[in-house]
Every structure is written in structure tokens, then in C-alpha cells.
Amino acid sequence: MDDRHITTSTRVRAEDYSGPWLPDRIREIAEPHRIHRKLWEFGVIQQVYLEQIGSGGSAIGFGCGREPIPAWLANRGCRVLASDQAVETAQVWTGSGQHSGGFADLPFRGICDEKKLHELVRFEAVDMRDIPEPLRQGEFDFTWSAGSFEHVGGIQAGIDFFLQQMQCLKPGGIAAHTTEYNFASNDTTVESSNLVLFRRRDLERLARLVAAQGDELWPFDLQAGKHEADLYVDPFPYTGEYHLNLKINDHVSTSVLLVARRGG
Asked: Domain containing 141 — which CATH number?
């Protein structure tokens, strides 16, 4: 019997926070439970790894910043390459508290033993717009990013990143990436050098391009939830009790998970 919970590329829903898996994933990264989309982004990536890899293996994360995922993966016995943009090219993020300048910025307390972290995790500066060729040799079981590839320079740049990072995976390897989803419009959107809100048509084009290179993007389930938190739109400066949907300029965005399997 298949008891997997993540079987599609999907969007965050309030029901997940009281469901059978997300509360455990939040606890495992030493975070307080709250209805915040970033916790779902971390948790859903963790859950895909658990259901598809289980333990061990190797993983590469992009735009990791100060995420708990590298330590969480190490606690599962996974060999991890955590990466972020080089400090000299990350001026937009270095003052945000999100950018990681190196291994020392990765959180681990309450998540993973420090000795295990040092044994299994390494850090490297990687430009997501041009992943180094040595990393694209198909040696990883798992790739991930949590709210990163909407920041690489535009819609096409984000799509190009997703297509390129698939080359890091072994045949049958799994990619799990979260990003911004403009669910209110399939026409106008936000597109700048620092932020993109992907529309459904952008995601559908990505799926076609992934298939064209011999890989598979899991089918979409983008139906909204029906809880009060699913209907609430958090305005800037984003201090609402529920933070699943947020107002960005004149648009509304939420978090979406894209899962793909390497062909071959």
C-alpha cells in the first residue's frame, strides 16, 4: 500500500498544518508551529525526500541561505552540498539575514549533531544562473531550493535554472523546489531582476520543456484550500496571523512545490 502524501506538484494549503506529516517536519527543524508558508516550503521538501529517498544518498541545495534543510538531511544520513550565491554578487541579500556566506551560517542546533553536520555537509558558492559543469554530472539523488529561483533574473532565467539543475541528478533522481505562484492572474504578473511571480502558464511551459529534455515534472494540483487561512491575503509588511498568500504590488502570490524526476 502506497501511503505517500506528496504525489503532485502542489500549492500550500492550511489543511497541511494539521495533517499527518507537516507538524512532524516543523518539529524536526526546531521551529514553533504556525501557519506560515516558509515552514510549509521547508516541510514539503523534507517530506518529498522522505517519501522518495528515505535516508542517505546525496543532495545539493541551491540558494540555501540559512535554511535548516542541510542539517535535517544530514541527520538522515544524507551527504549534502549546500550552496548560495557568492558574497560579492549577493548585495541584495547580504543585509536581509537570509544569505549564507558559508558553512558557519547553516543552523543545526536542535536539528542535527554538530559532528554529523561537519561530516556530511559542505558548502560552496554557486551561481544559479550558471551551475558549474562539474556539478552537472548526474551524481546527486536529490536537488532542492526553497523560494530561491524566483530571484535569479526573470521568468526565463528561472525556467533555465530549473532545466539546468536537473542535470545534477542521477537517472531517477528527484528535484523538489518551491517558488512563487501568482494564482490570481494568468496574464499580468511581477517580473523584475530580483523577483518573479510565476503564472500557471509559465509553470505549464516549464513542464513541457522538462519533458522535452527527457525528464518529468509531476502533474499540477493547484486548487486552493477552503480554510480561513487559505482565503486571507497578508499585506505588506506581512505580519498577519496567517501567512500563506501575500500581496505583492497589485498581485497575490502563494507558495508552490514543483517536483520532477530525472529521466534515463
From this structure: 3.40.50.150
